[in-house]
Fold these 2 entries.
Entry 1:
Amino acid sequence: MAVVKHETREIRSAEDIVLVRQAVRAWAIELGFRLVDQTKLVTAASELARNIVDYGGGGTVVIEALNDAERRGLRLRFEDHGPGIEDVDTALRDGYTTGGGLGLGLGGARRLVNEFEIVSAPGRGTRVTITRWR
Amino acid sequence: MPTDPWLAHIVSKFESEILADWIQHQLAADTLRRDLMSEAELVEQSRAFLGLLREAVQKGNLADTTGPEWTPVREMLACVSRARAKQGFTASETATFVFSLKQPLFARLRGEVGTDVDALGDAVWRTTVLLDKLGLYTAESYQKGREEVIARQQQEMMELSTPVVKLWEGILALPLIGTLDSARTQIVMENLLERIVETGASIAIIDITGVPTVDTLVAQHLLKTVAAARLMGADCIISGIRPQIAQTIVHLGVELTNVITKATLADAFTVALERTGATIAPRSGHV
């Protein structure tokens, strides 16, 4: 598997969330994703970017276009150096929130992509990597 | 620093010649934008600027263009720059208006000062410093002009985004467009609730055809609005749910089961009419 192209973006404010969505949509279109898959990727990116703004105290996303033998994909790595998540399993549970949202963002993002990986520990920040294949 | 005798001398003596050279120069330049500005306007601006420059140079301090004797020049440049920003000129094109005066001025200085290289070098240096300052001032004013344009557009967008329209007696519609996760969403939703009270509407249609992304925050805003409207005795219908949005909402796990949703505004309107006891039927003779 090879990374064909990549881009890093800062995520600090609500305006940055909009810009991340637009960037992800542009990349998904370029890679030839269908409209439904574009929408799923953009929505997952929106959830994770908002988590960075609301809980992570700002961070970055790395957008990567992937190529392997028979398929192409888009990988997004969201990273912050915020307080981290104590119990990742609980955070992924639908309806669980510490901030007054619906509590569906993290679990929803996982259901919208093909691969989902989260690494977090208290005081160590959070890294969420999602991949969707075409 | 005193006035420069040579610069004051040439702009007094050769004002009309310098103006002619300068205009010719501007008309021949790559940066000329005939599409944005007429030749007559350019000539008028050039004539006015050179006149004000002459007055300022005669009595003014060349080293400091912030003084009162330069006020008319600064005001004129600010006015020209803002106008050009609105007309669609680039910053370079705008600043070039001032910088392009260098060549005609230098040519005249060379002709008048003659063979005294030191005097010529001195006069050219002072002139170039002066015009650089004025050119930079132009660029700054241009930027301010652009910022005003952006601020105005933002204001316009705020207003654009919040129309609550009455479709029928007792039926309101809120066609939402753009990003729905910002602070303005709150205002939009409050507007809808206020209008429900004002009009006594029993049904409100929230159309999200123009909303590119529906994530959990957007869904939450929608659900809260629906719940608040219901407390006030009005039902909401959410319309404009495109196939890709529907699939995404399902994967997110957002429950919209308690809300009436429709694919199009037309479908929603039909339902709303039925609820209020009205129907739309083709006139007799039409199919």
Entry 2:
Amino acid sequence: MRDFILKRVAAIILPFICTYGFYVILHGHVSPGGSFAGGIIVGLSFIAFSTIYGIEKGRARLPETVLTWTESFGTLWYGIMGMVGITKGAPFLANKLAGIDLGVPGTLSSGGLISLIGLGVGIRVASTIVTLFFTMMEEKS
Amino acid sequence: MRIGKLLILLVALLVAYGILITVAELPPYGMPDNPVHNQVSERYINEAVEDTGVLNMVTAIVLDYRAYDTMFETIVLFTATLAVVITLKTSKREESGK
């Protein structure tokens, strides 16, 4: 696609879409949404970028090493967060049982481990979507 | 041959009869005293905020009560990506070889 108007509009809108995706991930425990929905929005902003500006520029923005690392460590991050419960003498993935301060419900810092786990899952979902898109687009050519 | 077909028809009718009987026994949709509205959902609705400190109940269930489920869900995502990449990705060495 070599459309001038589309490129300029995308250049204005896409940063806000990406930021909104991270907002949805980080506020998953306060407002509607969550890590899966927010991760899809973040991945969609990268997919829209590489659809409009071409797959090579999208690749240059998001190199394969970054995708590989987020892809692999998203799941591992979940496991590490689960180990926090074990180090405090509680079951795996325990949150309140491990004695973590849950904070005031409704504030951004509430929920203990939930927001940290959600951040990992969101980045994981985004990298999955982008990796699938890149792989399928390159297979065609 | 004819007897075999009749037998198949008989078995199919029996299965259909069983399924229809089961559907007729289901409780009406959306009634408050249905068996699905048991102590599990009651516990989630009443004590999710106290147990997890999270206002969004879906997040509380997905990432706290059912955290194991979500963990293996991410592993499913990982496996799916791995399968797609292994199947579709053409390596650079292979391209130059052709």
